[in-house]
Amino acid sequence: MSRYKNEDKYKLAIEELNTRKVVTLTFLSNKYGFDKASFSRYLKKNGYDIKKTGRAQSKIDMYNFLGKEYLQGKSLKSLSKKYGVSRKSLSRYLKEIGFQIKCVNRKDYIVVDENFFETIDTEEKAYWLGFIFADGCAREYDQTYSLRIEIKSDDKKHLEKFKSSLGLNAEIKQRKNRKTVSVTISRKKLVKDLWGYGCVENKTNKGFIKNIPSKFLRHFFRGFFDGDGYIEKDYNKYRASLVVKSEDIANFIKFHLSSFITQVETDGNFYRIHIGRKDEFFNFVNYLYKDSTIYLDRKYATYKSRVEYVN
Predict the structure, then answer these.
(1) Which of 55, 64, 123, 287 would you call most buried, defined as having the most Cβ atoms within 10 angstroms of its Cβ?
(2) Which helix (DSSP H) or strand (DSSP E) does residue 92 occupy?
(3) Cβ proximity of 237 and 222 under 8 Å
(4) Helix (H, G, I), strand (E, B) or coil at 40
């Protein structure tokens, strides 16, 4: 048995050293997942000249490899740190081969359809608008406009759906010491369009809803409910509920969903809107989810199980 636990990985890395012209040991250690210092000692012990080996792979090959990662949304800073290359040199080379790099600011390499919310004319747009009302924040701070959505880590797949809808290549980030994931987009046009529907920064207390075509309200409410709603899982109970703090939003929901609502509670700080009778419960969840094409998988699964149980 080999005394080097990573010897198989070392051999793969050495194969690259022998077939390519310029590479750094940092690049290889990150690519193959082993300690750079240990690999260096292994090379020395096996007769490799470290000074020459440190530049054993074509720079063009390496920068082309990094360019592909850059297109996937990785920053120049993270790539230079991960692979041990100069950020300045990488930026210069990418510009030479046609990449549009104005600066190292994150917003300059994020790709997104910033006109997505200009007009609410599809189920998809209405749904994400509702979801952002529940779990997003569209704000301006120090002349920087940003949209941020943060949800439970278990629902990360839902953010992938969001990225797909907007053609977004931004990274989904895991919060430290918290079981949540988030995505942030810095686009003035996107944020201002959201404001036009009442999705303002402090919507929890001051929010309002406007300019949503009536034919898409069902999808808007499904997005809102997927973010802030609850469906009872106990087959012997028939309850769905929403909690909001804005009086204007509560009144909007009460007006448009009045045929389903059985009770509204308030203590001055929030409004809890209940659907609590059997007929209203099933009418409501069918209104939200039946024949829909976009939804939070977890809540949709609960809906399906409730409907299938009674049928």
Answers:
(1) 123
(2) helix 87-96
(3) no
(4) helix
